[in-house]
Write a structure and sequence with these properties.
Helices cover 64% and strands 7% of the residues. By secondary structure, it is mainly alpha-helical. The chain has a two-stranded antiparallel ribbon.
Length: 262
């Protein structure tokens, strides 16, 4: 009995003896019937609205990309890819770029820069250790790409065309699942209907505006060389979009609960 009580006391303390309080979300979590009804209703509402607006969103993306091609130093052409999803027919804008393997100068400069940046991380202050580890992870990804293109450049089967088309399709899929993600992880908390709807609209709207600019930036880099495709895909591709969703979700979790709102 004494051992169990001691374990319960030590289990809520940190390694320095400080008390670890229960997270505010868990402390205020009450899964009532109204929250379940709200979660299902918002999921159906935003999923329906997104499917209805998706063809118009694709047309907006195509106009934005076409306008950007006339202003940016980007040698690409815009094509529309046909996509049929059950009853929904989409024309997805895709940028077409000629694949360029890295030449000796590009490979050498990138290799030197990668080594210098990796060495620089050892001179950063200890308080910046999270940034150091993140930077080293990013540089290791680029180093692996350098090694691959040095040994087997002709075995790289991916092209900028397939990569950029896959990016925009994956982005559409990711935005489409946001209502489901929030229904399972955010709507169940008692934030109130308007806060839940506002966070969902902000997240989906932000990604819908962010995606074409992300595609343009990737295209600008890839027209120089496919050497940077692994880094763009692993670090600055869909994982970056997922981090944006997590950031919006984290922001929404800081909002006051309806039961304790002033």
């Amino acid at each position: 009995m004494g051992f169990d009580s001691a374990s319960s006391r030590t289990g809520s303390r940190g390694h320095r003896g400080g008390v670890i309080p229960m997270h505010r979300a868990l402390a205020h979590f009450r899964l009532g019937p109204m929250n379940l009804v709200t979660a299902v209703s918002l999921f159906l509402f935003f999923s329906t609205i997104w499917l209805v607006l998706l063809p118009r969103v694709c047309r907006f993306w195509s106009r934005l990309l076409a306008w950007s091609l006339s202003w940016l130093p980007l040698h690409a052409r815009l094509e529309m890819a046909q996509n049929q999803v059950r009853f929904l027919r989409l024309q997805i804008p895709c940028l077409r770029i000629e694949p360029v393997l890295p030449d000796l100068l590009t490979w050498s400069l990138t290799c030197v820069l990668t080594i210098l940046l990796f060495a620089l991380t050892f001179f950063l202050a200890r308080r910046l250790m999270p940034i150091v580890y993140l930077a080293r992870a990013v540089l290791v990804v680029q180093a692996s790409a350098l090694l691959f293109f040095a040994l087997w450049p002709l075995r790289f089967q991916h092209t900028p065309d397939s990569y950029l088309e896959g990016m925009i399709r994956a982005g559409i899929g990711l935005i489409s699942v946001i209502p489901l993600l929030f229904a399972l992880t955010y709507y169940i908390f008692d934030f109130g209907l308007w806060r839940k709807a506002c966070l969902t609209a902000l997240t989906m709207g932000h990604l819908a505006l962010f995606l074409p600019f992300q595609i343009l930036l990737h295209a600008l880099v890839l027209q120089k060389s496919t050497l940077f495709m692994p880094l763009l895909y692993i670090v600055f591709g869909i994982p970056l979009d997922v981090m944006l969703i997590i950031a919006f979700y984290s922001w929404g979790m800081t909002w006051p609960f309806r039961s304790v709102a002033p």
